[in-house]
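for ur thesis appendix - Major facilitator superfamily-domain-containing protein. copy paste whatever u need, i formatted it the way the template wanted (i think)
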Amino acid sequence: MSKSREVAFISITCIAQLLSLGALNQTVAPVMVLADYFHIEDYGTLSWFSAAFSMSVGTFILPAGRLGDMYGHKRVYLFGWAWFALWSLVTGFSYASNIIFFSICRAFQGIGPALLIPNAVALIGRTLPVGQKRNIGFACFGACGPLGATAGAVFAALLADLAWWPWSFWILSIVCVVVMVLAYIILPDESVAAPQLKTSGRQRPNFDYWGSITGVSGLVLINFALNQAPLVRWTEPYIGSLLGVGVLLMVAFILVELYATEYPLIPIRGLQKDAIFALTCIFVGWSSHGIWAYYLYLFLEHLRGHSALLTAAETSPVAITGLLFAFSTVWLIKRFNVSFVMFISMTFFMVGALLLGTMPLHQTYWAQTFVSILIMPGAMNLSYPAASILMSSALPKEKQGIAASLVSTMVNYSISCGLGFAGTIDRYVIEHAARKRGWRPGDGNPAPLSDRGPRTTAIRLEGLRGAYYFATGLGALGMVVAFFHIIVSRRRERGKA
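the 3d part is after this line
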């Protein structure tokens, strides 16, 4: 490739990450605008708008990467843009319906990024040579995360405050169509050789149908139970039933991948210890991040009373520090072990959540809020490129889609799971705080969003802090895992010496 061709190639693949994170923030930045429009009175229902999107992205990435390996990453990448455009358009028109239809549209919209992200990463892994160029490509991809989140927040807030919130979805749909055309022109054609022969005499792809059915179904049921429980309580029989069935399906998925398929969605047997370590850190770290981002917007908009546009401006520094941290990953990976880079990122996850969890309600923005916003991109943009580089190097060229799927699945699915756990903690802490103050609302909502009095705000703040302390614990767990791997890596290096 010429230099200009390389720049165009990296740009057209990285825009998948940019718009995917931007789409996630389409319902995070204008969260209180949506609450008012749909007459929502609790945080749990609001979280579904983001959780449904992340659930679909994290779940359907599993088969999407494999489809790219079989049918061609460019082909699936183009189809992903078409799907993303269609459901962004439909989601915009859901204003005429209700919150259930809107959440369903968000879930279908999330399938678009699920098709895009692993195949974009796979295109980088297949096209750019091992070494500095590939690492820069992954770093650029990671850097587009905070850039996209910021751009999505700013434009969604701008349109929600000054025009009408559905326009953010309609404009995104138009942008997706334009990017699809550019991708068709810029991306090089690829020849896809399926790894197996069929009796017909020609090569045909072999898809892991049972693995896809059990894996996708299990992940969806588990995630639905986690995010629905804060709304109806864990005592509802169907919550436990769905969670149990989901767990059983995931056990079946593991057995299928180990013993019942020749071409598994996840090569469990081939995963090295380093890869398992990285994926574990990604799961706990990005679960913490999902809580950090969602409750930060709720804190600034609902408890402090800031507008969606002001809140988007307050969180915009993540774009600048995100770029710095993303490209520093290339330098750090060359000089330190990946486990050390992961330890730094997990520390940022923990400290960023702790700062917000201990933040006073009426403190100036330039104290703990600003510091947390500055360092959190370090958590995201050190962990994601490091894990992508590790997984890309651990698997062969024909399995780059699987490598990308694993990292992206963990990132997006963990965000949705984190919101589910945090929602449960938030609800029960709020109920406990209400009873402690002599407020016994029965089965009703003890702190409806429309009530912004000082007593309700104090109760709501306790619930929010409970969620943040849970996010802090997740970050601390990631630090323990990363520190343990540092010790193991050093012992292994000494053994080789």
